[in-house]
Each structure stands twice: as C-alpha cells, then as structure tokens.
Write a structure and sequence with these properties.
By secondary structure, the protein is mainly α. Helix 4 packs parallel to helix 6, helix 5 packs antiparallel against helix 6 and helix 6 packs antiparallel against helix 7. It is elongated, with a radius of gyration of 20 Å. The termini are far apart.
Length: about 200
C-alpha cells in the first residue's frame, strides 16, 4: 500500500487558506487510510489538526481513520470532540452513532440519532436510523424512519433511490408485506438480490 500512496501529493495547493489546506490534508489522509498506510494517514491528520484544531470536520476524519485501524474507542473520542466544538454537527452525530454501534451500544446510537433527527430534520440521519432499527427487530419504526428520510430528501439521484428502495423492500418483507416488498424490489434495480426477489414474486 505504501507504493500505491507514493504518488500522492503531500502538501496543500500553494497559498491555500488554512481551511482549504486542512481539507486537502484530510482528503489525502482518507486515501492513505483506505490504502492501509496508517502511518501516513496519521501524519497528514496531525498536520490538518495543527492548521485547524477547532474545525469539527478534522475530528470526524480522525474518527474515521481510527475506525479503519480497528480502534473504536479512540474513534469515539474524536467524534465526540467534533460535537463539543459544534453541537448537532451532522457528520459528528453520524460518526458518534457509528462508533457506538461498532462498540456494541446500538441503543445509545439510536437515542443520539433520534434526538438529532428531531432537531436537524436531516435525511441522512433518518436513513441511518432506518438502517439500524431492523437490527433490533424494530421494523415498524424502521419503516417510519425511511418514510421520513424520503420526505427530507425529495430529489434523490437514481442510484440512491435504488438503495433506499432496497432497504424499504427488506423492511417490508420482515413486516410480512410481501407484495410491497416485491414492488420495492422492482424499484431497487435490475441486478442483484432484489432483482431476484422481484422476478420470483411475479
């Protein structure tokens, strides 16, 4: 992975403002982390934090980097720091919820998402709730969360529409509404598991 990272440019564009430079370093860190070069990813994030220590996004990126390294407790601390800097920061809320799930505390994650959902009216937060609730067999609540996600995101791109329809199809099937599950599976796309569901339901 180190050789694959070798071509990355490890400095922001010349003359970039601190915010832009920090974003640049976070992006490079994310790429390095995905390629499992965590020494480089950590170093880039340290530079980004040095430039913008009070920027919530930097701490969200730190959280994601820790998760890639299977260090969920450090990830949670970094994600919570983003919310200390900016309450109800949407990426921070979702990062904290993700860390809580990784640590096995689904209920705490759901409570955080539910509180934020009421204040932020944010489609991705409703969608994250809708994805987590079925894991606790709370399918009616999950269906309501996905309806809310649709209401908050009326202009979905086709790919995301298919993704959401697939989730709705799964929940409808778990609730015993197989006709609706088949209808939604049809909307979920032409290939893969949900296409097979739709074909078998005809």
């Amino acid at each position: 992975s180190r050789s694959r990272c070798a071509g990355l440019r490890h400095r922001p564009p010349p003359g970039a403002a601190p915010r832009i430079a920090s974003d640049w370093l976070c992006l490079e860190s994310m790429i390095a982390g995905i390629l499992r070069d965590f020494v480089r990813a950590d170093a880039l994030l340290a530079r980004a934090e040095e430039m913008e220590p009070e920027r919530p996004w930097v701490h969200v990126e730190k959280a994601m980097n820790f998760l890639r390294q299977d260090r969920p407790r450090q990830a949670l601390a970094a994600a919570e720091r983003s919310l200390q800097l900016r309450a109800d920061y949407r990426p921070g809320v979702q990062a904290v919820a993700t860390c809580r799930v990784v640590l096995g505390d689904d209920e705490a994650a759901l409570e955080l998402l539910a509180q934020a959902d009421g204040r932020l009216q944010c489609g991705p937060i409703a969608l994250q709730r809708g994805a987590l609730l079925p894991e606790l067999d709370r399918h009616d609540e999950a269906a309501a969360a996905l309806i809310r996600a649709r209401e908050l995101m009326p202009l979905l791109e086709p790919g995301f529409e298919a993704h959401l329809a697939a989730r709705e199809s799964d929940i409808a099937a778990r609730r015993g509404d197989h006709a609706l599950a088949a209808q939604l599976a049809e909307k979920a796309g032409r290939g893969g598991f949900h296409a097979l569901v739709a074909r078998n339901a005809r």
